[in-house]
Write a structure and sequence with these properties.
The protein contains four helices and four strands, in the order βαβαβαβα. It is of the alpha/beta class and about 140 residues long. The protein has a four-stranded parallel sheet, with helices on both faces. It starts with 5 loop residues before the first strand and ends with a helix.
């Protein structure tokens, strides 16, 4: 247990669907993973574009929290929330962007990450369980 996040960045279409089983494994292993999914641009939605798929439902079963960036002014806020919640709840979170939200300039404040110490408490608990014979 490193106490650190892991990040997966995928490509829309097959890249997204190929990540589902990895995120499911992270879910069952209580791993703090943030998967960044990239959708098509806003002008392509509903036009049957190459690899157009609704990506949020693909991960819904294995991610308690999903952030969807549909306004670049909330990019820092929602991104920070996904990382903080992944770390605090020790499970995967999805951060979904539409492709055209990566271009342009924005002026936002980036919040400091939350500092949590629960991984130390878990290590102490596992040490106590090993020492007490509870695992025998």
């Amino acid at each position: 247990m490193s106490g650190k996040h892991r990040v997966v960045i995928d490509q829309n279409g097959p890249g997204t669907s190929n990540c589902v089983t990895a995120v499911a494994a992270a879910f069952w292993a209580h791993s703090p993973v943030v998967i960044v999914t990239l959708g098509i641009g806003t002008m392509g939605i509903g036009l049957g574009g190459f690899h157009e798929a609704n990506q949020l439902p693909m991960f819904q079963e294995f991610t308690e929290d999903q952030g969807h960036i549909n306004n670049e002014n909330r990019l820092a806020e929602i991104t920070s929330r996904c990382f903080d919640r992944a770390h605090s709840k020790m499970d995967p979170k999805q951060l979904n962007f539409l492709r055209d939200r990566f271009s342009g300039d924005i002026d936002v404040e980036i919040a400091e990450p939350l500092t949590l110490q629960h991984h130390r408490a878990l290590k102490q608990l596992f040490g106590w369980l090993r020492g007490s014979g509870a695992n025998r």
